[in-house]
Amino acid sequence: MVKLPEGVDINNLIDDLRIFSWEAADILLQYSQILKKSDYKKNILKNGNEKDPVTKADLDVNDLILKRMQSKYPSIGWKYLSEENAKADPNNCDINSDWVWILDPLDGTKDFLQGTDNYAMHFALNFKNKPFLGVVLIPERDELWISNGVNVWCDRRQHINLKLNSFPNKSLCEMTLVTSKNHSNPTLMNLIDKICFKNVVTMGSIGCKIASIIRGESDIYISLSLPDKSSPKDWDFAAPEVILKTAGGAVTNLENEELCYEKANFDQAGIIIASNNKNMHSKICFQIKEIIKKYDIYPFIT
């Protein structure tokens, strides 16, 4: 078990994360209601780029979480990496520390602007480039997924907390795949078609996808980014990875290798597979790799 920095109690830290996350939920829900009631998209969209949007909600939650953490833990030697700060100044990301908090204040911004419920906040604490604990907040579902590094659970303000079930062993053709709503590509669709999943559902936000796996609504998620194209970043995967792994699942690349965080560009490129059963995961990766080879779907893999 990894020991937190001196002066940090895990139970107090989790309590703080819970408080700060529900504050963030209030901000996101407020902006969501504004978007649903009126044509305020142009006012909420800060960068004018609907292909890679940044909204007031992103910035307000980013500001809230960083200020709350820095105020509560001013003398702890951990660093912070947030999507919004990295976008604003990618050359000013000082993360030279064993302990790094990774924040995505609004994962699924396109879905958020489109008025769907599939958006989330991710906040994870990495230790030596690996996610150690974290939260995935899904405001519209009243869900706050929390991992303390040992256990995972879902807090809810208005409803009874969710109970987690064990994950059954399934073959690929028996699985339900959850895939991206706004970030698909023909190569991924070709792979999905060749695997012949039992069912395919689409939604935004990697955090929402991973939560759907933990709930048992889906079984597997595949992220496939093409060379020289955009790819997910550390803040997309860190918190979802730790809650899924703590729940008994796995997140790796196609070679069944753990993800590596805090690289120079923060990219999580190539093919990443998240599944609900760590005991079956290596077999799943192997089978998908064999399908890719058979149909020459992703020929640049080694």
TrEMBL record:
Catalysis: reaction(s): a myo-inositol phosphate + H2O = myo-inositol + phosphate
GO molecular function, one term: 3'(2'),5'-bisphosphate nucleotidase activity
EC number, UniProt record: 3.1.3.25
Residues annotated for Mg(2+) binding in this entry: 83, 104, 106-107, 236
Domain of life the protein comes from: Bacteria
EC supergroup of this enzyme: hydrolase
InterPro entries in the cross-refs: CysQ/Inositol_MonoPase, Inositol_monophosphatase-like, Inositol_monophosphatase_CS
One of the protein's GO biological processes: 3'-phosphoadenosine 5'-phosphosulfate metabolic process
Cofactor(s) the record lists: Mg(2+)
Pfam families named in the record: Inositol_P
Keywords (A to Z) from UniProt: Hydrolase, Magnesium, Metal-binding
Annotated protein name in UniProt: inositol-phosphate phosphatase
Lineage, top ranks: Bacteria, Bacillati, Cyanobacteriota, Cyanophyceae, Synechococcales
